[in-house]
Specification:
Radius of gyration: 32 Å
Order of helices and strands: EEEEEEEEEEHH
Distance between the termini: 95 Å
Shape: elongated
Strand content: 35-45%
Number of strands: 10
Structural class: mainly beta
């Protein structure tokens, strides 16, 4: 059985045992995800096409690694205008191994949702953690600065400007 999944704005035809590189998905190596955006399911004799997605279908995949793609050079030029721009890009990728294509009963599986950054930052901060850096800054300002000692008059060396050359007129 195969499935056409949609992730990262692209579509991939996958079946059990396939290894696919997709745009970055959150998660560590070894984590299991359930992709629920299935556009089409196909088997030996029948095919199911979703409108836009197939209901109760999912693909279970394991993250093998978080990697980066090859470097791509982006070069723009407008002839005779003196306009040239060169930039490079490396796409973040997630390498997935497709474990199983689930045709029905996927509602009971947890759907893959990317973790939000707001959820990661909801930790309690104590008053001491907030006040401690401010105290350190105040103490640093209160410390006297080291004074620069002036050299005795005899040790100073004065640099002379080179003599100007006279030009003939």
């Amino acid at each position: 059985m195969f499935a056409v999944i949609k992730t990262g704005g692209k579509q991939y035809k996958v079946s059990s045992g396939d290894v696919v590189k997709v745009e970055r998905l959150e998660g560590e190596a070894g984590a299991t995800l359930h992709l629920s955006d299935i556009l089409m399911l196909g088997g030996e004799s029948k095919m199911t096409v979703g409108a836009p997605a197939v209901q109760d279908a999912a693909v279970r995949a394991t993250i093998l690694e978080q990697a980066r793609g090859d470097k791509i050079i982006v070069f723009k030029k407008r002839r005779r205008q003196g306009y040239r721009r060169k930039a490079g890009h490396r796409q973040d990728l997630t390498v997935l191994r497709i474990e199983e294509v689930i045709a029905s009963g996927a509602n009971s599986l947890p759907k893959y949702t990317a973790p939000t950054k707001a959820a990661e930052k909801t930790t309690k901060v104590t008053k001491e953690e907030v006040v401690a850096p401010a105290k350190k800054q105040a103490e640093a300002k209160a410390e006297p600065k080291e004074t620069v000692k002036a050299k005795p008059a005899g040790e100073e060396k004065v640099k002379k400007a080179p003599a100007k050359k006279e030009t003939k007129k």
